[in-house]
């Protein structure tokens, strides 16, 4: 009977708290969104399962030496996984639209207004300057960058920031259209753009090298993300390392995505997540995303006042770095206004520029606050 009592007392069942049950429900919601609704399944599924496991008692997964501790400590706290994600993104990114129309870089930069607007708003809500920076970066709709910045400035916010960032990435088709339509006329949305030129191979090879040189010299703290992003792109554009390109964009990307999702989910214990600040993160995340969309559209309209070759203001909405979903949303909106309007390649310019802009913004925050 004593041995039976010891076995029964070792069950985690007796240690379950109301907070942990609440986190199970949150994890089930994320799993439902990923599996049934298809919302960012590659990240929300491992994040959801990681939350579930992290809120089971007596597992030892989060203790030093535990499996999830190893994933988090060596993958995220030591800033390994987000740069590897950027390596894969670089190997999948075509900078051709940016090189064909360089002024679209400004539209990607303009979308970062949402980052700094939400940063100021979070400060006014009472968040610390470190927490406010992590909330602001959600406006860039770039999950790996949000995680990278949180790991540097506010590790306790990582789970809520990551879930907010990936959730709003999935809501791009819902958030962008009403804001973009409110700020543009049907005539502006109907504007057809022409691709005047396409960069040659030499330009596409030189861009990641010169881009890395300029950006990292200006914002050295962005080097982990920018260096790997440009290296992945150089793999692809060089045409001489097909195996490395394939591994970067497929096998490696898939492996680190699993580790990233589980590690992020493991940070979302009931003690950390179930706080009033978490609600504030999600509210300000919407504000950041809305500001980023509006900033890109408004700067595009302003640009049309001074440039000869006009741009369709809708492509400014693609400046948020949800690649390529934001560009596809812009394409659909353009065709809705004018069935002959093909904006996808034009929208990819600010879309790709937004990835770079968000990484630079994260580097600027790290430089200013550490």
Automatic annotation (TrEMBL):
Gene this protein is translated from: gcdB_2
Record keywords, A-Z: Cell membrane, Ion transport, Membrane, Sodium, Sodium transport, Translocase, Transmembrane, Transmembrane helix, Transport
Protein name: Glutaconyl-CoA decarboxylase subunit beta
Subcellular location(s) of the protein: Cell membrane
Gene Ontology terms describing biological process: sodium ion transport
Annotated Pfam families: OAD_beta (PF03977)
A molecular function GO annotation: lyase activity
Membrane-topology annotation of the record: Multi-pass membrane protein
InterPro entries in UniProt: OadB_MmdB (IPR005661)
GO cellular component, one term: plasma membrane
Main localization category: membrane
Transmembrane stretches, start-end: 12-35, 42-60, 80-101, 113-141, 161-184, 205-231, 251-274, 281-299, 342-369
Coiled coil: none
Native source organism of the sequence: Sporotomaculum syntrophicum
């Amino acid at each position: 009977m004593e041995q039976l009592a010891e076995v029964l007392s070792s069950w985690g069942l007796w240690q379950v708290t109301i907070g942990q049950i609440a986190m199970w429900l949150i994890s089930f919601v994320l799993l439902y969104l990923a599996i049934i609704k298809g919302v960012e399944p590659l990240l929300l599924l491992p994040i959801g399962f990681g939350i579930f496991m992290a809120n089971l008692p007596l597992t030892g997964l989060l203790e030093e030496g535990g499996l999830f501790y190893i994933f988090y400590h060596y993958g995220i706290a030591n800033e390994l996984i987000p740069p590897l994600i950027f390596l894969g993104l670089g190997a999948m990114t075509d900078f051709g639209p940016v090189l064909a129309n360089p002024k679209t870089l400004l539209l990607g930069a303009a979308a970062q207004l949402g980052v700094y607007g939400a940063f100021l708003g979070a400060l006014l809500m009472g968040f610390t300057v470190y927490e406010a920076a992590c909330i602001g970066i959600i406006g860039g709709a770039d999950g790996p960058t949000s995680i990278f910045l949180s790991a540097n400035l506010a590790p306790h916010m990582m789970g809520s920031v990551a879930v907010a960032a990936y959730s709003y990435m999935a809501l791009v088709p819902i958030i962008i259209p009403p804001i973009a339509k409110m700020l543009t006329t049907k005539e502006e949305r109907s504007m057809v753009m022409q691709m005047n030129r396409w960069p040659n191979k030499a330009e596409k090879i030189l861009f990641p090298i010169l881009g890395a040189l300029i950006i990292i010299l200006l914002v050295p703290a962005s080097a982990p993300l920018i260096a790997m992003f440009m290296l992945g792109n150089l793999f692809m554009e060089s045409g001489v390392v097909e195996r490395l390109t394939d591994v970067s964009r497929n096998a490696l990307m898939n492996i680190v995505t699993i580790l990233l999702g589980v590690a992020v989910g493991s940070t979302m214990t009931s003690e950390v997540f179930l706080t009033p600040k978490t609600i504030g993160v999600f509210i300000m995340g919407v504000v950041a995303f809305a500001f980023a969309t509006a900033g890109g559209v408004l700067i595009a309209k302003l640009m049309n006042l001074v440039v000869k070759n006009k741009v369709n203001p809708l492509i400014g909405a693609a400046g948020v770095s949800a690649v390529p979903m934001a560009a596809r949303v812009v394409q659909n909106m353009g065709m809705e206004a004018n069935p002959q309007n093909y904006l996808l390649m034009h929208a990819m310019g600010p879309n790709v520029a937004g990835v770079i802009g968000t990484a630079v913004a994260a580097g600027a925050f790290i430089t200013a606050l550490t």
